[in-house]
Amino acid sequence: MSQTPVLVVHGGAWAIPDDMVEAHLRGVREALATGWRLLERGSTAVDAIEAAICYMEDDDTFDAGRGSFLTRDGSVQLDALMMEGATLRAGGVGCVEHIRNPIRAARLVLEQSPHVYFVGEGAERFAREHGMELCRNEELIIDREVQRLKEFQAKTAAGHPDPTFAGPQFANDTVGAVALDMHGNIAAGTSTGGTLNKAPGRVGDSSLIGCGCYADNQSAACSVTGWGEPIMKLVLAKRAADRVREGRTPEASSNESIIYLKARLNGHGGMILLDRQGRIGVAHNTPRMAWAYKNINDEKSGINC
Ligand code: ASP
């Protein structure tokens, strides 16, 4: 036990409106404190990430767990992935509708299954068989999101905005965390309700290995947020981690990856990146991104970087 721990969390990258800034900052700071309490007493990076992300899944502010965006049919469908850099074990769940904390289910897959990814009913059955209580989908739906969907559908029916999520004005409130523990291991996790008005069954980048989340002790740990389809096509989290293995700093790699996202596919979003030396990168090409960082000596958070 010798490594100085580091924790970084994010709570989405988009044009977060002024009246939502405070809630985002409070959410990422509390999530950071929750994960840090574990890291500082020697818990693993996976423990810290699970705790930090569970906090944000339970916070209605974010598009993860309760309070997530709704599908075009008005239900919540959640995706999450966790990955451990020491072993490359990973666990993902997609399109789950009855799990309050999908990141916990993802961790169960990581630790207790020979498989890497479960979807829908099979994911929920796996979670239940491994001790998780299921909930009703209605328990994950809040009035704000019912209203948001209604307004969006009314506008698109009137031929109003671009329904392709091509602009950073579309909310991307996915949550994620990367951690380095005292044992010198890194891990990453990402959890989301996906994009507003998505087609039922759609899976975004967040829970796809290497796209919205990746961790390898030999390179870096990464969690991404933003418009999922371009991020997926570029396998962006793995790409950013690979650049660190090749010698770039996490700061340079995260900046370069987000520039590439825009240049190659006109994508938008943000990422957090962390290597085993505790060096971090936080980058976004959206007007704002909610993030928070802590090591033994320093603590920072922001709505911009
Ligand atoms: N990347 C997520 C998705 O496309 C959305 C987000 O980051 O908020 O599902």
Main sheet record: 8 strands, mixed
Count of helical regions: 8
The number of distinct β-strands equals 12
Query: What is the mean pLDDT?
Result: 95
Helicity range of the residues? 25-40%
Please tell me what the overall shape is: globular
Query: What's the assembly state of these chains?
Result: single chain
Indicate how many domains the architecture comprises: 1
Name the CATH class: Alpha Beta
Tell me the radius of gyration. Answer: 17 Å
Please state roughly what percent of the residues sit in beta strands, choosing from under 5%, 5-15%, 15-25%, 25-35%, 35-45% or over 45%: 15-25%
Element pattern in H and E = EHHEEHEHHEEEEHHHEEEE
In CATH terms, the superfamily is (Glycosyl)asparaginase
| CATH topology call | Glutamine Phosphoribosylpyrophosphate, subunit 1, domain 1
Order of strands across the main sheet? 4-3-2-6-5-1-11-12
Q: Structural class, judged by helices and strands?
A: alpha+beta
Short description:
By secondary structure, this protein is of the alpha+beta class. It contains eight helices and twelve strands.
Model description:
With 305 residues, the protein is an alpha+beta fold. It has one domain (6-302): 4-Layer Sandwich (Glutamine Phosphoribosylpyrophosphate, subunit 1, domain 1). The chain contains 8 helices and 12 strands. The protein has helices spanning 18-39, 45-58, 102-112, 120-129, 143-157, 228-233, 236-245, 250-265; strands spanning 6-14, 78-84, 90-96, 117-119, 175-180, 186-192, 213-215, 221-226, 269-274, 280-284, 288-294, 299-302. The strands form 2 sheets. It has an 8-stranded mixed beta sheet. It has a 4-stranded antiparallel beta sheet with strand order 7-8-9-10, covered by helices on one side. Helix 1 (18-39) runs antiparallel to helix 2, helix 2 (45-58) packs antiparallel against helix 3 and helix 7 (236-245) runs antiparallel to helix 8. The longest helix is centred in the first third of the chain and has 22 residues, at 18-39. The chain is globular and about 55 Å long. The two termini are 32 Å apart. 56% of the residues are buried. Aspartic acid (ASP) is lined by residues 12, 63, 172-174, 192, 194-195, 204-206, 212, 225-226, 228.
